[in-house]
Amino acid sequence: MFKRSVTFLERDDSDLAAQVAVWGNLHEFGDMTWLPRQGKVIYRQDDRVDVSSPGDGLNDYLGFRSFPTLGLIVARVAEEHVEESSDMARCLAAGVLPASFPMQAYGFTNDGSSFTGYPVVGYQHRIQASGSCIDAKDNLLRSSCPWDPRVRSLFFYNTGFSVALSKAPALAADMQRLRDLNPRALCSLDAKMGVLIRYVGASSAYLGKTEDSVNFDFTYYRSYTQGRPRAHSDVIDELEQMALRKYGAVPQWGKNRNFAFDGAIAKYAKSGEFLKVKERYDPDGVFSSEWSDRVLGIDGSPNIVHKSCAIEGLCICSHDSHCAPEQGYYCRPGKVYAEARVCSFRPTSHRDHNDEI
Questions:
Q1: Neighbours of 103 (CB within 10 A)
Q2: Which of 133, 192, 226, 285 could cross-link with 219 by S-S, CB 3.0 to 4.6 Å?
Q3: Where does the sequence pass through the membrane (predicted)?
């Protein structure tokens, strides 16, 4: 049993790449949240302290609480309206959470009910685990968790991947270069509280990280209408492909879209040993599925190639038909990582002869 001491600090992102390399070693439970559009980084200074340290703090993260169901539905309607609006509207809306979360200490309290200031000191189990929604009482859906599938509420993609610590600063620098080309293109990340950057230690497990790694995690808007493009989807898609292909990142198994898992199992040197153990303990495939067999390279591919497949992340485009040419989205190289292939919007006046082929 031990306690932790938590303080949040906000700085500009001018030294993001350098800090990515060292922050995890400076603080045992430290992490970072990058807000690309705002050019800011929220540093979580989180360290182990003696159990005798005063404080009974609690982490009840704001995003993992239950909310009035009607409010969640209205919020989604507003989000859909903003998505169809201009960059200015999207970026104005994207500033709401980054402004409100610090004012509420991200859900931390010093005694379980009120926040009086940093540091927040509390027992490990009250600081590490968060989310009172799981304990919310059933009230006939008058309130619900934001992710409750029974409610037409928030709907989003969640991307998570890990890259070797030795490569993480260069990836962060490339992400900033991509941002600098058009900062408004990443307002959709700020709208969901940016890019969470965490640290993962090396492991001898068959599917563990072979060296200390950095995990990048972010969520972004998803339409309920299949095949409908997202504003500036090409920028986020390039960011993902750059991490996975240029820097050899591995996807988090429980997140991501289909294309992220293509070839992922081959990045683990001991994947063969893992599959042997899997076969020994589950020879009848009771705990397997068609999806897990595709992801693990046993049978088939996680990619699903058809018209507009890249819009949904089911594939990486290699032809315009994999995007949505009828809506002005064509398969094009990335802007920073030229080997990426993303669905870019091209107004009618900018289309050339190749677009018609």
A1: 8
A2: 192
A3: none
